[in-house]
Design a protein that fits this description.
Chain lengths: 399, 396
């Protein structure tokens, strides 16, 4: 057990003068002990719970808000490993998209079988998602043999290319992208320390030009895919970023990406960064890393978003689910440890607070217009998990 | 900076009835001192050393033997560079030293009174070309550095020597694919076994190995390219013949093992018989030191661990229950690592109150340290007095 690094929960640091303010949404991956349901909580800067959504299945990935104040959430409605006998290294499944309004009424549900890691609502209401372990995506043997990198399979394991599907409101596939048909076995080489099983795509982001950013973790790059033709039109970050997550386009046209740094080629302690990349030159124009780089490291998951005042809100998933905000200069202005502990059903882990991403919304976000953001609506939650629930000082435990 | 992770310092947890009472020696990164602290985290002794210490042992005769990093050493940019081995008495007077610019990492004082040391040695070009792993062109100025083990007599002569590239096999000892090729094996620990053979940890090939003292053959390997270990440190032999290993989990195969573990391995079966950590994502086992690290089995069966990069030392029972935890807050010096609020520690070892090396009575509060500003460390006088009297009742 680790007391020193798990004793402080809730908001541990807040500088209101430099923070961009707003509301943070998080969904621990699992079900709540008290409600038995998947949860999504919205907190203000002081850590008050201002809204809470509940879902019939455990959180598979994360949830995010739509500009109308609805939440869309990826729930894990089935045990994918059992149902499709997939290797356990295939992780992060959210198999049903649930949309609820501000008050928690279900608007619609869309099944996304074997959906994994990321999903998004298209402008026409369709859902685009990443699908792991679909037989359609298995590489033909001769192509798989040509693919560079990775640890060769010991038995007859197949190399799965992760596919991307777009489904309409009824769950019917209206567009599909079989990854290996568009990728290059020479250029898109795999990390030498990953098993040759999959690319592990983890992010979908729709740019303003309608094209899609896709982030295959094991290839240490992300690319822009032309939609709907499926052609890969540009690759970014190769040689600079390692096992990245959450690539996105900023208002200034640059890309922001969470560089996890796992399996970075060097001696020494691994560290994560958040990097802003100029898409025209593939050059880094901004980065955040900790003063001592190894103080900030999330080997898996994680993400970042840029706020209107230039601050960056970072989800450091593997460090006891730490969400923090830094200024453009890299100064810490807010820090929060997710206090909500849940039960993870599939791997039977207790006392779990892991989150995949933590989107922050500015106070003037359209989805909040006319909505009740009074923490008094959630007295029990705030008593248990709000700012008053956590001590700010620590006394050694000697007995 | 992380407030949640880096602000709680000093003693955080102490189960008086189950912890192994003694004195803890610790060597902060970039410090110029080796410290002894008591169970409450108070410093009871320190040695100001001539060189930056990177590894040390309190010998049974009460002297401190430490590896010092020489500032202008030829390979000072490689991790674990040393250069000077010094034995100092309780008051800090140098009673023995051995200087060799290519010394690195750790050492072991043998039964006979000699000292085993690790020394970097250039791998001949034709062998280096056959070594697998790493990115091409990442050699250090075109050179790949391998390891030699030497046994140094008290007079400073070399009594026995093992040259790595004469006994290792480039087809078996495959280096990590994402480490630079400036090293091949990057040894980081060496220990004499009871039968006289040598146990050594090769970090870059993810192997711990037994070297036959007579022939120099590598007669046993554990780990390897598809094995359990990922850049391990600090293997030691236990009384039951098993090995205790700090498996750092740096550059692991896949990512599920991106956290450190302590493993007890039975050398005859090659099986893990006891382990702690790595059960990610269970938060109660949050434990990760990608580099450095040390572990030690105590005589009451507990295990003492130095989670180096966070500066966290802890002791746990066989069941994995925490019984003692302390986060380093001792002053260290100029470099960027030390300026941060995480105060990393190279290694730490616990010596029981009956250890013969603790010849002088270890008095509490011989030197008090100042708590670092901005941390929540508390040293409540009343609580201390209560604990001290309880310890005395328990017979310590």
């Amino acid at each position: 057990m680790n007391i020193a690094q798990t004793a402080l929960w809730g908001v541990t640091y807040y500088n209101p003068l430099k923070s961009s303010g707003g509301y943070t949404l998080f969904s621990p991956i699992g079900i709540s002990y008290t409600s038995g349901k998947g949860e999504a909580w919205l907190i203000d800067m002081e850590g008050h719970i201002v809204n809470r959504w509940q879902f019939p299945y455990q959180c598979g990935l994360y949830g995010y808000l739509l500009p109308n104040g609805h939440i869309v959430y990826a729930a894990q409605s089935e045990n994918v490993h059992q149902k499709y006998s997939l290797p356990f290294s295939f992780t992060g499944f959210g198999t049903e998209i649930i949309e609820q309004d501000w008050d928690g009424n279900v608007v619609r549900t869309v099944p996304i079988p074997r959906g994994s890691h990321d999903f998004m609502i298209m402008p026409n209401g369709n859902v685009m998602y990443i699908c792991y372990g679909d037989e359609k995506g298995i590489l033909p043997d001769e192509l798989a043999a040509k693919w560079k990198g990775g640890i060769p399979a010991e038995g007859k394991e197949k190399l799965y290319g992760d596919n991307i599907y777009e489904v309409d409101e009824d769950g019917k596939i209206v567009w599909e992208w079989i990854s290996y048909e568009h990728m290059d076995p020479e250029i898109d080489a795999m990390c030498p320390l990953e098993d040759r099983q999959q690319w592990h795509m983890n992010t979908l982001f729709r740019c303003r030009d309608g094209n899609i950013l896709v982030s295959p973790r094991h290839l240490n790059e992300f690319f822009k895919m032309e939609y709907p033709s499926g052609k890969i039109i540009a690759r970014y970050g190769r040689g600079k970023i390692f096992h990245q997550h959450d690539c996105k386009e900023l208002d200034n046209g640059n890309f922001l990406v969470f560089d996890n740094g796992s399996h970075r080629h060097n001696y020494g302690a691994p560290y994560s960064r958040v990097v802003e990349i100029d898409p025209n030159t593939d050059e880094e124009v901004w980065e955040y890393k900790a003063e001592v780089p190894s103080d900030f490291y999330s080997s898996l998951m994680a993400g970042a978003n840029r706020m209107p005042n230039g601050n960056t809100v970072i989800c450091d998933s593997c460090s006891n689910s730490r969400i923090f905000e830094v200024t453009y200069e890299g100064e810490l202005v807010w820090e929060y440890i997710v206090p909500l502990r849940v039960k993870q059903m599939e791997i039977s882990v207790d006392n779990f607070n892991l989150i995949f991403r933590a989107p922050r919304y500015p106070s003037d976000y359209p989805g909040f217009k006319g909505k009740d953001l009074d923490p008094a609506r959630f007295p029990w939650e705030n008593q248990m998990y709000g700012p008053a629930a956590f001590k700010k000082s620590f006394v050694p435990r000697i007995f | 900076m992380s407030v949640a992770f880096n602000s709680i310092k000093g003693l955080t947890f102490y189960d008086i009835t189950r912890a192994y009472v003694g004195v803890t020696m610790l060597i902060p990164v970039d410090g110029e001192e080796v410290w002894l602290i008591d169970m409450l985290g108070n410093t009871v002794h320190s040695w100001k050393t001539r060189h930056k210490p990177i590894y040390g042992n309190l010998l049974p005769n009460g002297n401190l033997l430490y590896m010092g990093q020489v500032d202008n050493g030829p390979l000072v940019d490689l991790e674990g560079a040393g250069g000077s081995l010094q034995e100092v008495d309780w008051d800090g007077n140098v009673v023995w030293e051995y200087n060799e610019p290519y010394l690195h990492h750790a050492f072991d004082r043998t039964e006979k009174g000699n000292t085993l040391v690790l020394r970097w040695l250039e791998v001949p070009k034709e062998i280096a070309a056959r070594v697998k792993g790493g990115d091409a062109g990442t050699e250090r100025e075109g050179v790949m550095w391998g390891d030699a083990i030497q046994e140094i007599t008290p007079k400073g002569t070399i009594a026995w020597e093992w040259i790595g590239h004469e006994h290792l096999d480039p087809d078996v000892d495959i280096a990590c694919p994402i480490c630079p090729r400036c090293g091949w094996t990057h040894a980081n620990a060496v220990t004499e076994l009871p039968d006289g053979d040598i146990l050594v940890s090769f970090m870059q090939t993810n192997v711990i190995a037994i070297i036959d003292k007579r022939t120099g053959d590598v007669k046993w390997r554990y780990g390897g390219p598809a094995g359990e270990l990922a850049h391990q440190h600090s293997p030691t032999v236990l009384d039951n013949g098993n090995f205790l290993i700090f498996d750092n989990g740096l550059h692991p195969r896949g990512l599920a093992k991106g956290f450190s573990r302590i493993l007890e391995v039975n050398p005859s079966s090659g099986k893990i018989v006891w382990g702690f950590g790595g059960n990610w994502p269970e938060p109660k086992e949050l434990f990760y030191s990608p580099t450095m690290g040390s572990c030690q089995r105590l005589s009451n069966g507990n295990t003492f661990v130095c989670e180096s990069t966070t500066g966290r030392l802890f002791e746990m029972s066989m069941k994995g229950d925490l019984v003692w935890e302390y986060v380093n807050n001792l002053p260290s010096y100029e470099t960027s690592l030390a300026r941060s609020k995480s105060c990393p520690v190279f290694c730490a070892f616990r010596y029981g109150m009956d250890y013969s090396g603790l010849k002088r009575p270890v008095t509490r509060y011989e030197r008090r340290r100042e708590p670092r500003p901005g941390t929540t460390e508390e040293e409540g006088g009343v609580k201390e007095a209560a604990v001290v009297s309880r310890l005395e009742r328990l017979g310590y």
